[in-house]
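Quick log. Single chain, no ligands specified.
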Amino acid sequence: MKKTVFIITITALLFSTISSAETASPDCQIPVVTGANNWFPYSYIDDKNIQKGIGFDVVELIFADLNIPIKYRFGLPWIRAMKEVNQGSIDVLVANYWTEERAKKLVMSTEIARESLNVFTLKTKPFIFNKWDDLKKQRGAMPRGMALGEAFKKYSQNIDLIEVNTHQQIFKMLNKERVDYVLLAQYSAQPNLLQKENENVVMQSTPVNYYSVHISFSKNSSCLYLFDQFEQALAERINDGSVAKIISTYVSN
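-> predicted structure:
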């Protein structure tokens, strides 16, 4: 009888050890977090070189709820940041749009926000935009690496749309009439529209597309086992209104 109990106990311990190894990784000590440098209101660096935005605030809140410390890596160019996230050397991306391509490499959270992609023109040089084909005779500019959605990304191959490194450069090109329009997410454009040099810029009322914003873990991250806990805590914070409160501090509907 004692021998049977001993065998059962050892078996239970072995199963517990295997189960723990499957759910936790010794390589994940402190999750490394990053975000875009210039993506208001989700992820940006302010003039004091401090990371700000809805994405950073929500990620900080959720990891605090889980009592898990995090480490930041910010200031990276977007393309390099995405490369490191995809490789797993960075664990968490505080905000990104959902696309089919990204879904292959990232595990994405519940949607935390939604916004529109819009056309911005000069008041003194407007054109009617009601459908995508209205862009065919125009020249546009957009931020480098910005997600467009699968359908519009494919369509954009048929129009004259160039990629530019910064929002400031894009609006400068528009004001100098080097392009006819700027393609940018509605909320992302807000800081630029408040600047005096852009007082002649207006947003067209018809959206090009709509975006779903998520927080993502790299599929190659050693901290991926934390995702289910993170997702559960995030759902609770969405339900209790905490995420909506964070959003309201950055944008007004």
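The first strand starts at residue 32 and ends at 34.
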